[in-house]
């Protein structure tokens, strides 16, 4: 039989869509979710869909050139709210399930996010960015483009963020809107950022999170607070000793569950845990102290951005535990954490669960899942019968014509004899007896994890005839706390060796042509790519994206530079510049002779473009190897995952062309 299927292309990205944020209706008969795709103009659209679990029909509730998100059912299931930019900025909208007309509820000057219904269904809590002195009711005036100021006075260290741009005079505040009258009550104020958690079952309290420390520039702790909705004194639940998020009340209102970690030594290089506060007793306890697994979805892919809204801890009806997503050895699944600290895996498998919604009455759930061959779909799981049913196949038609490569899992010996997990993607159309060039791909973070999820870039390289090798060196999530912390203070040490051992491992296979190797990575993966080509000429070509080459300048220009390098490099430029320089690939530039493609977003505030500029200039000046520098105007650090679609496709095309030319 002839194979009529083709390999994936960069432009296929324009067709790939994914569902997210499934939300079951209170009666469990239907679910709403968000579907994100690109339109004919190559712009993102996301719409709210309704899936009936009774007749398996799927109906679009919203449409048009807009970004709709955060669909949430009212407690009685008669209404839905969602966030949409259909009137300009992201505002809260409301829909009666039996009607087709939407009503805009908020009109905040800078948009809103994260709506949560009150238990009586009369109000919705939400978060909004506000300048000092601005109110949520001043409305449309500010809906026009803000004029660029003639000057900006910077008087704090956290004044810019890769995500939100210049945040020097805006803070995130929490408010409540009455959906009948539209009246808005702002619950928080001041120069602190707050986030909405959940309502107490009696509707009197709102659990929120905030860093309200004296000096948030150097005190990074995020606490949980209970705020009385009708006014009055707040209750502080945590003790300013960690970063805590997503508090949810138990059904009886006596406990709060939340996700977080203690910040004594590590802010980034540590795994998230489940915590429970007993509100009457005033105690806070870590439930998963002995469970060496990261709570949350740590999987890195290139279809969605990391940190997509996930449900946090979802209490069981009997209050004896909670369901969470956790990440282990390249997979993320759903786990039940019991109050006694024991943990049961509820949904496993070699895949990436990135969202779920639970029906306690029926003991069933709907989850959003990606795997190596699927960017994302929804599944229904009946836990009574342990049966699973696929609800969507959003890329079915497109993928029918495409031949994908299925990754093979490997475990190999890294530095110090450590066991390291990775995957090999053979070229599409692989034939025994032939040899192929291979590309080593390195993930960012470094605290994230490659795994059983879809990676368009890897499939594209496999379709172009490359073996793709991707592994989780020390520093990655998925293998316990010691593994996560093992790269700190040792960037370019044993993490580098773990990666080189992967290359040694795959070069044993007859089908790998070890004279034709390439290496690529973004962010920390870009740092490591630069480091690798500074060690010698093992690779024929390299592609470094949004990378770091100089920790000394990174310290002062990245939005997180001054505290990220303190923890990860374990140095700063004024006390130990030698160590900062020691771990900087720019130090090794005299050794760099590998043809290098440098790509960087011009509005990247995480790893600012000056990093790419330094590397480019020094390499060009030396003139020992081809180097090309592609700048992406307006692009931030997330460009390869959620940036401008045409820039994403260009980035992939430049990558393929570079490897095709030099490997
Ligand atoms: C959990 S580690 C902290 C990662 C940090 N994120 C946040 O505050 C981050 O942005 N890391 C960069 C490198 C660093 C600036 C030197 C990075 O490698 N980013 C990754 C994406 C990523 C973001 C958050 C968590 C994991 C990975 C990338 O751009 O691919």
UniProtKB/TrEMBL annotation:
Which controlled-vocabulary keywords does the entry list?
Acetylation, Hydrolase, Protease, Serine protease
> What residues does the Peptidase S9 prolyl oligopeptidase catalytic domain cover?
453-662
One Gene Ontology term of the molecular function aspect: serine-type endopeptidase activity
Question: What Pfam family does this protein match (any one)?
Answer: Peptidase_S9
| One GO process term, biological-process aspect | proteolysis
Q: Which SUPFAM superfamilies match?
A: alpha/beta-Hydrolases, DPP6 N-terminal domain-like
Q: Which family does it belong to?
A: Belongs to the peptidase S9C family.
**PANTHER family (alphabetical):** DIPEPTIDYL PEPTIDASE FAMILY MEMBER 6, SERINE PEPTIDASE S9 FAMILY MEMBER
What does the function comment of this entry state? This enzyme catalyzes the hydrolysis of the N-terminal peptide bond of an N-acetylated peptide to generate an N-acetylated amino acid and a peptide with a free N-terminus. It preferentially cleaves off Ac-Ala, Ac-Met and Ac-Ser. Also, involved in the degradation of oxidized and glycated proteins.
- Output this protein's name: Acyl-peptide hydrolase
């Amino acid at each position: 039989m002839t194979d009529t299927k083709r390999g994936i292309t960069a432009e296929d990205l324009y067709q790939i869509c994914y569902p997210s944020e499934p939300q079951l209706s209170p009666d469990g008969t239907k679910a709403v979710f968000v579907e994100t795709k690109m339109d004919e103009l190559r712009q993102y659209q996301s719409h709210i869909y309704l899936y009936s679990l009774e007749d398996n029909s799927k109906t679009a509730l919203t449409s048009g050139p807009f970004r709709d998100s955060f669909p949430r059912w009212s407690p009685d299931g008669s209404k839905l709210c969602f966030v949409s930019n259909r009137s300009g900025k992201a505002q809260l909208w409301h829909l009666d399930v039996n009607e087709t007309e939407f009503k805009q509820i908020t009109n905040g000057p800078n948009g809103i996010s994260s709506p949560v219904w009150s238990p009586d269904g009369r109000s919705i809590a939400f978060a909004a960015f506000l300048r000092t002195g601005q109110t949520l009711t001043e409305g449309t005036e500010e809906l026009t483009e803000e004029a660029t100021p003639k000057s900006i006075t910077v008087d704090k260290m956290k004044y810019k963020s890769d995500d939100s741009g210049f945040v020097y005079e805006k803070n995130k505040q929490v408010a409540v809107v009455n959906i009948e009258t539209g009246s808005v009550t702002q619950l928080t104020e001041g120069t602190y950022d707050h986030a909405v958690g959940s309502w107490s079952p009696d509707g009197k309290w709102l659990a929120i999170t905030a860093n309200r420390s004296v000096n948030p520039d150097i005190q990074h702790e995020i606490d949980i607070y209970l705020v009385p909705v009708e006014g009055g004194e707040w209750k502080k639940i945590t003790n300013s000793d960690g970063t805590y998020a997503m508090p949810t009340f138990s059904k009886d209102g006596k406990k709060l569950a939340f996700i977080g970690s203690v910040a004594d030594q590590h802010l980034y290089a540590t795994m998230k845990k489940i915590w429970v506060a007993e509100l009457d007793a005033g105690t806070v306890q870590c439930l998963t102290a002995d469970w060496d697994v990261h709570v949350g979805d740590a999987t890195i892919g290139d279809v969605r951005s990391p940190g997509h809204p996930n449900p946090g801890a979802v209490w069981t009806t009997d209050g004896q535990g909670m369901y969470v997503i956790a990440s282990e050895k390249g997979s993320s699944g759903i786990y039940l954490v019991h109050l006694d600290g024991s943990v049961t895996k509820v949904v496993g498998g070699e895949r990436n669960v990135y969202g779920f919604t639970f029906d306690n009455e029926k003991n069933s759930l709907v989850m959003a899942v990606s795997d190596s061959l699927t960017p994302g779909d929804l599944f229904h799981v009946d836990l009574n019968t342990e049966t699973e049913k696929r609800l969507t196949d959003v890329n079915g038609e497109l993928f029918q014509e495409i031949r994908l490569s299925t990754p093979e899992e490997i475990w190999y010996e890294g530095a110090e004899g450590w066991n390291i997990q990775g995957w090999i993607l053979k070229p599409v159309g692989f034939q025994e007896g032939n040899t192929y060039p291979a590309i080593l791909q390195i993930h960012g973070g470094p605290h994230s994890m490659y795994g059983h999820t879809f990676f368009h870039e890897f499939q594209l390289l496999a379709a172009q005839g490359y073996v793709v090798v991707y592994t989780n060196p020390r520093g990655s999530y998925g293998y316990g706390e010691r593994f996560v912390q093992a790269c700190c203070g040792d960037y370019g040490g044993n993490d580098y060796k773990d990666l080189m051992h992967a290359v040694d491992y795959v070069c044993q296979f007859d089908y790998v042509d070890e004279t034709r190797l390439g290496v690529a990575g973004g962010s920390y993966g870009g740092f490591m790519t630069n480091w690798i080509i500074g060690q010698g000429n093992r690779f024929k070509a390299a592609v470094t994206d949004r990378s770091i080459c100089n920790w000394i300048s990174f310290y002062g220009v990245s939005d997180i530079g001054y505290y990220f390098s303190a923890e990860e490099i374990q140095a700063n430029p004024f006390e130990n510049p030698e160590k900062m320089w020691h771990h900087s690939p720019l130090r090794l530039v005299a050794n760099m002779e590998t043809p290098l493609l440098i790509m960087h977003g011009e509005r990247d505030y995480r790893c600012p473009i000056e990093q790419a500029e330094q590397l480019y200039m020094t390499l060009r000046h030396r003139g020992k190897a081809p180097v090309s520098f592609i700048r992406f105007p307006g692009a931030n650090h997330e460009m390869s995952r959620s940036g401008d679609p045409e820039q994403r496709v260009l980035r992939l095309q430049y990558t393929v062309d570079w490897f095709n030319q030099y490997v």
